[in-house]
Design goal:
Layout lengths: L12 H54 L3 E7 L2 E5 L5 E7 L2 E6 L2 E6 L2 E13 L4 E4 L8 E9 L13 E9 L6
Antiparallel strand pairs: 1-2, 2-3, 3-4, 4-5, 6-7, 6-8, 8-9
Length: 179
């Protein structure tokens, strides 16, 4: 056996392999933790985005419809035109995945990522049956129920954690038509 010269110290191959294995396991754990955090962030931010889009659209539509002086056109469940308290003609319509707002001929996108939009117009509320009677006659509209379902705007594949949906509804009683 050879004699050590001076104070030479070192690691054996076995010790180096064990240390490398421990470092690899720690790094794998850190990687998995980082991946989980990133997925949680993506899920949360996309959920907030979809809810905020639906909330913005519903809030604006509710405020304007509540103060409408008259409904001028009930085109379909995705198209509604009315005159607000300032005499401005406003139209909400869904085109593709965008909710458009037209005010006196100027059209702008209110929100994108709309999956479904339903605007149902009602004439009267039947107290005995607890139901509304639907109408397509603009002058008979007393109540409008709006349902907006939004989805993540960025192209997230369906079924993945980032794929989020939000559904919000509001029932609006038109102030000008209540008598």
């Amino acid at each position: 056996m050879r004699e050590r010269i001076g104070n030479q110290r070192g690691f054996t191959l076995t010790e180096l392999i064990v240390v490398a294995a421990v470092i690899a396991m720690v790094m794998a754990g850190v990687f998995l933790l980082q991946q989980s955090g990133q997925q949680a962030y993506l899920l949360g931010s996309n959920r907030v985005e979809t809810q905020q889009n639906a909330r913005v659209a519903l809030d604006m539509m509710t405020r304007e419809l509540r103060s409408a002086t008259s409904i001028t056109t009930v085109g379909s469940t995705t198209d509604l035109t009315f005159v607000d308290q300032n005499g401005q003609t406003i139209r909400y319509v869904m085109l593709g995945t965008n909710l458009l707002r037209t005010a006196d001929g100027v059209t702008r996108t209110l929100i994108g990522g709309v999956e479904t939009l339903t605007m149902t117009c009602y004439a009267v509320y039947d107290v005995y049956n607890g139901t509304y009677t639907t109408t397509s006659t603009p002058t008979q509209v007393k109540v409008v129920k709006i349902s907006v379902k939004t989805k993540t705007e960025e192209g997230v594949q369906a079924g993945l954690p980032g794929d989020q949906r939000a559904l919000m509804e509001s029932t609006i009683k038109l102030r000008a038509t209540l008598s």
